[in-house]
Amino acid sequence: MISNELKEIDNDHKRLFLGGFSQGSSLALNIGANLDQKIGGVIMVAGFMSKFTKIAENQEIPDTLVIHGEKDDKMPWGKAQKLMKTIRNKPNLETVVIKDMGHNMYSDEMKEAMYHFLRKRAPSQ
Question: Residue 26 sits in which domain range?
Fold first, then answer.
């Protein structure tokens, strides 16, 4: 449960980051955007927004990183973009499309994008 994770980080929501792969990314965004307090961010890899993701056009979302492979044959980038219509123009959305990545998480470029996203946002101890 998220409440248990928050206890581990002294209830500091800014230190809470959610991430997901494929359908899990939709779930991570849905939860992150609908918590009572703003969290540190959301990372979506090879993902999209399902019809169950409840985010209104004018709703604020956490800082979000979308990483997608240009060679994703399960969820092509063009289709994923269309499904993310309610967030694709948000100012706190970063998008990284990786040329040689498919529907997976095996890319040094992906790891580097995640690292930079987290380093910029995670409060230092």
Answer: 8-107+116-121
Structural domains in the chain (count): 1
> Domain with 80 in it: what CATH number?
3.40.50.1820
For residue 21, which phi and psi values (nearest 5 degrees)?
Answer: -115, 135
Residue 41 CB contacts under 8 Å (≥ 6 apart), including other chains: 17, 18, 32, 62, 63, 64, 65, 117, 118, 121
> Would residue 3 count as lying in a domain?
no
Element (H, E) at 95: strand 93-98
pTM for this predicted structure: 0.91
What is the amino acid identity at position 110?
A: M
Q: What are phi and psi of 100, to 5 degrees?
A: -100, 15
Query: Distance (Å, rounded) from C-alpha 79 to C-alpha 55?
Result: 18
Which residues lie across from 8 on neighbouring strands?
none
Q: What is the pLDDT of residues 58-116, one digit of tens each?
A: 899 999 999 999 999 999 999 999 999 889 889 999 999 999 999 998 899 999 999 99
